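We modelled the chain as a single entity of 189 amino acids. Its sequence is:
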Amino acid sequence: MLLCKNASYAINANKNNASLPAGGQISQINLNADTGMDKVNVWLLGPAGAERVVHVDRTIEYSGGKELPVANITKEVAGKYGSFDDTGYGSQRSGWIVRARNGERMTNSNTNYGECRSHNLRTDKVLPCLHAISYEVVPNQQNPALASRFNVAMTSFAMTNEMITATMDHQADAVRRAEEKADTQGLDL
């Protein structure tokens, strides 16, 4: 169970199922908490009732007069997560950190970098990456040194893969239990 201590957030949740590569379904819960200026999304995945967090993103919008310096935001993000690959375009500042399954940093010259540099939920195959972290700062149009919006996101492909495996194991156990029950009751499956 996740708790939100900030009463300002409007919290919404939806639950659905995603397809697994070998057939069957995996439970997916998407939580959204939004104050109008601060939005948090959390994705949980796994066997029903045992879902775990696989993705978190947060977007903060700054109202006029409350903007933060872009340089301060980028410094704080780098201090928390490490250096990012710079992918800024136009006046925006953004970056990525992508790690391979062995924990090593991937670069844009790595053949899997493009696929791993994503926050898409992939249940159709195992990705060759551990996680992806990104940030984006959108400068104020009147003063580009100040941020009008900031976003940071992290997707754990390792946890996604772990939850896919746990769900497939859970489904296989359910089949074994059904077969054992059928055998003890003399049913022919």
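As a brief sanity check on the tokenised model: The two ends are 38 Å apart (CA to CA). The first strand starts at residue 10 and ends at 19.
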